Amino acid sequence: MEIEWEEPHTAIPEARLGNEATPSPKRLDILLPADQTTGAVTTQAGYVYLHAMIEMVMRKNQPLSLICIAPDASPTMEFLGETGKNLIGQAIVRCIRQETRDYDLVYTLSLPTITDTPVFALVCPLMNEEEATALGERLRKIMTAQAGAEDHPWLSFSVGVASISLDAPDADSLTARACAALQRARRLGGGRLWRHSDTLRAIIENESHYSEDSQSE
Fold this sequence. Notes:
Elements: H1 43-59, E1 64-71, H2 75-99, E2 105-111, E3 114-125, H3 129-145, E4 148-149, E5 152-153, E6 157-163, H4 171-187, E7 193-195, H5 196-216
Parallel strand pairs: 6-7
Antiparallel strand pairs: 1-3, 1-6, 2-3, 4-5
């Protein structure tokens, strides 16, 4: 039996980072095993879902994107300690669920290169990179706006986006690209979104500049 997908939302209500909103019972992610500290789906269950969705959309030549989200390292995060980080993680998960479709799924990620803050991955079936970029940037702005007073947030967020393609047709390669994009956003100072296609464009531009410099010598 094939799943009948609904169309992605075009208008999504605003959400508050930290609201005690109860997720809709229709959401798939609240029916799967949950991480005890943040409430997101566990890494293993999330990876299984990602793998299954990639297989499904690839058969139908449909898009799928993965969005990685993490708070940026800051003195505030260090001051809050593990308990505070867990509370922030819970607020992030609630915000993501309020802003996404019933079949989008948020799960925890464990990255050896990011140990100072919680990291989350959001599986977005039927969403291309452009649409995922818009969603990721909206999530980043909402969470930043709710993490402070007016124009002085005490916490910022970085986002990485990647989409399946012929050279990244599986869960491992897609996850690697989205995580690399997230880490690039953090290395650039945080508080921003970076796409895998941005990395490709940067590589092409660097090679072009190198070629021009070589010809001028």
